[in-house]
Amino acid sequence: MDENKIFCTNCGCPIEDQSTGVCPNCGTPILPPQDNNGNFDNTYNGYDNQNMYYDMPTNNPQPKKSNALAIIIAIVVILCGGCFGAMYTGVIDGAKFGIVNQQKALEKIDKYIKNSEYEKACNYALVVQRAKPKNRELLEELVVTINPVNSFKAYKMVENYANKVGEKNLDDTVKKWIEIGKTPVEIPYIEPNGGTYVYPPNVQMEFDATILGRGIFYTTDGSEPTEESNLYYNGVKIENDCQLKYFVINGVGEKSEVKTIDYEIDGELQKKVEDTLSQAENTLKDAVVGNEVGQCLQVSKDTLEQKIEWAKEKKSKSCAVYDGNLICTELQGAIDGLNESKLSDADRTSLKSAVEKANTTYKSNSNNNDVYSELSTLKTVIDDASTLLDKRNATQDELNAKARAVGSAVDKFNSAVELIKLDAKYQKFVGSYIYSTGNGGTHEENKYIYLTIDKVYKGKIYGDFTFDRSTYTSGYYTDSYGSPVITDDATWEERWSNENYFRDVSINNGKFTFDISGTCSYSSGYQETYTSNVTVDLTGPNPTVTLSNIGNGESYSIQLDRDY
Predict the structure, then answer these.
(1) Which of 129, 150, 180 is the last residue of a domain?
(2) How does pLDDT run across 143-159, given as a tens digit for each residue?
(3) Which among 304, 309, 310, 305 is positioned nearest to 332, based on CA atoms?
(4) 273 vs 267: CA distance, rounded Å
(5) Domain that residue 501 falls in
(6) What pTM value is reported for the model?
């Protein structure tokens, strides 16, 4: 036997490469040589205390049977046990393998629902329920959780449970669930229920969530829906113009007829909304708040920002045509508001000066009730001008025009004040005045004039005037006693005025003028109308009346007496 030949003590395999210190077949450490008493020989200089064995008990050494398989089995057992433990504790999801940690499974379902992954929540709940098909407590937890999401899937779990435990073993609650599943189908409430929209809407279909078993199968390509079609969970996203078809099914498979709803997308209005929103965002981005030329107000910038956020939220929902137009209107209004708040480089000096002068005039006459109306008008002009001064984007033309308007309003107001002062001067003439020759004089002509001045207000006069004249052209004489005598063949003419009222007649240099109309009647029976001009002079103690064109172009100038 070769003294330098060593063999593994475990499997008997010859060790060719002794430098590794382990058996190449089974991995057992190699022991150093031993003497007859079983002591290790540490003097062997080739292995330096490495474990190795030199002699074999036979002349034909045979390797022992390997235990690699046992090691592999042990590893598999350990791994399987670890996996089982991990699945049971919920570290690894073992629902598909029938190993469920109830608490972890329900938490996972809740997480799906919170993330709006409703289909995943329902499908996973079915897997969990099938893993523990007879667990009544788990069933109720799952039904309560899934029914608000999809009552059709919730009822499937009830069916699975009933099939596993048998009808005789069902409690009253489960029996009630099964009966509810037989409730006849009803058409759900749908919002939006067809129509034209700016953006593809998310269609919601709702019915009584307390009724187990109801489900909706639908298509959006115009094809007829079946139970292999899409199952409704929480909204149907309409992508483009489409025809939505659906039917409702209950727990026992009873179906409604297929319903059809048409949806259209207004691409033109959608582009308008997007363009307006983009314009608003760019305007907001470029806006600088301040009181320098070109800078805007903070409130205008805030308003635009709020409108942008509102528009984004509005278009994310069922955005109908009305909503799209409203978005454009509101955004454009906010854009215009911000631009209008930008300070222009126009000179406001002239308008400021005009407003200051107008305010001084207004304040100095604020207690003058005689010019109340004029004060109100002046105040309106001042307020309009002040508004323009506050208008940050006012143009130079606007400012100049308004300055002229303010100046004109002040001049007009001052004129009204002067007229009020004149009223006091002519107020003494208010009353009635008369002139009459009587009917028994020595004249062939008799005159009667009556003037009433009712009111003098703001330089204008109001009243009425009456004139009457009779003239004898023949058959008139005075007897020896001085009394007038009219013969039977006397001829005459009479002129009288119609009732003539004068209103808003201006007083100029102490005089006012108006026209009267009247009728002229002759003894022959002929009549004609005439028009005469009347001027009243108020510069004397009593009014003096001048009438022109009274009978063949004649004129009269007569001072009247007050009629007390």
Answers:
(1) 180
(2) 999 999 999 999 999 99
(3) 304
(4) 10
(5) 430-562
(6) 0.50
